[in-house]
């Protein structure tokens, strides 16, 4: 067991229940535009489109700004809806920023690690991620909230860790642990940067990649055994 002083957490599906948050925001924005008919169909299409675009973002093929409106532009094109994708995306992000659903055990884990230096490193929109964190029970528990839109880099790019290490004035990589649910984003980025990683895998997904996280946990509370 190593002595980690600094713990970096991903936000979505690590500390916050993104699936629930996304669904509520999705329902609210479609309700605002009176598009409740075929909601399940729209949601299925959106998930498929979004998955492709987020992969493109991770691979540096598109920017976050482009992704926001492009996902809805493609959705509306597929279902022949004449709606302004840019405005729709703005409304959607507004609703998403209101969602503060936590993953089971998140509040307990962050509370019990309060003697450590805790920070967030997340891909996503600055306003949305800041709003969700600041309106949740996890408010004021992190030294820094480092968000890809603000830094100009997204995981798995190493630039976001350069930014984080500079911000927190970290010099020893061996004292740092990256915790996240995504192999291709969180774990890949930690490995790229030469820090230890903990894969949060509550759904017991198979690791079909060549990536080898330092630790794997299925419950967030298991992190306490690793760190203590």
Topology:
Layout lengths: L5 E4 L8 H15 L6 H20 L5 H15 L6 H12 L9 H7 L4 E6 L3 H9 L9 E4 H4 L7 H10 L7 E5 L2 H11 L2 E5 L14 E3 L5 H5 L1
Parallel strand pairs: 1-2, 1-4, 2-3, 4-5, 5-6
Would you give an account of this structure?
47% of the residues lie in helices and 12% in strands. The protein has helices at residues 18-32, 39-58, 64-78, 85-96, 106-112, 126-134, 148-151, 159-168, 183-193, 223-227; strands spanning 6-9, 117-122, 144-147, 176-180, 196-200, 215-217. It is built from ten helices and six strands; from the N terminus they run βαααααβαβααβαββα. It has a six-stranded parallel beta sheet, with helices on both faces. It has 228 residues and is of the alpha/beta class.
Give me a quick take on this structure.
With 228 residues, the protein is an alpha/beta fold. It is built from ten helices and six strands.
Tell me the total number of β-strands: 6
How many helices in DSSP terms? 10
Please provide the ordered H/E string of secondary-structure elements. EHHHHHEHEHHEHEEH
C-alpha Rg (nearest Å): 18 Å
Low-confidence segments, ≥5 residues, pLDDT <50? none
What oligomeric state is this?
A: single chain
Alpha-carbon distance between the two ends: 8 Å
Binned strand content: 5-15%
């Amino acid at each position: 067991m190593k002595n980690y002083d600094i713990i970096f957490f991903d936000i979505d599906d690590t500390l916050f229940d993104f699936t629930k948050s996304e669904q509520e925001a999705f329902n609210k924005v479609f309700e605002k535009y009176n598009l409740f008919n075929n909601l399940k169909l729209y949601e299925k299409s959106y998930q498929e489109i979004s998955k492709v675009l987020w992969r493109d973002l991770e691979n540096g093929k598109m920017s976050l700004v482009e992704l926001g409106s492009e996902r809805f532009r493609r959705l509306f094109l597929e279902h022949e809806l004449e709606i302004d994708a840019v405005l729709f995306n703005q409304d959607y992000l507004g609703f998403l920023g209101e969602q503060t659903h936590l993953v089971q055990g998140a509040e307990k884990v962050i509370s019990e690690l309060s003697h450590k230096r805790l920070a967030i490193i997340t891909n996503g929109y600055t306003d949305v991620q800041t709003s969700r964190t600041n309106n949740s029970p996890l408010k004021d528990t992190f030294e820094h909230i480092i968000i890809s839109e603000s830094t100009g880099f997204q995981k798995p790019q190493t630039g976001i860790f350069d930014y984080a290490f500079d911000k927190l004035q970290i010099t020893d990589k061996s004292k740092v642990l990256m915790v996240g649910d995504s192999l291709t984003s969180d774990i890949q980025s930690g490995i790229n940067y030469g820090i230890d990683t903990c894969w949060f895998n509550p759904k017991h997904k198979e690791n079909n990649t060549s990536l080898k996280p330092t630790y794997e946990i299925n419950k967030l509370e298991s992190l306490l055994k690793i760190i203590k």
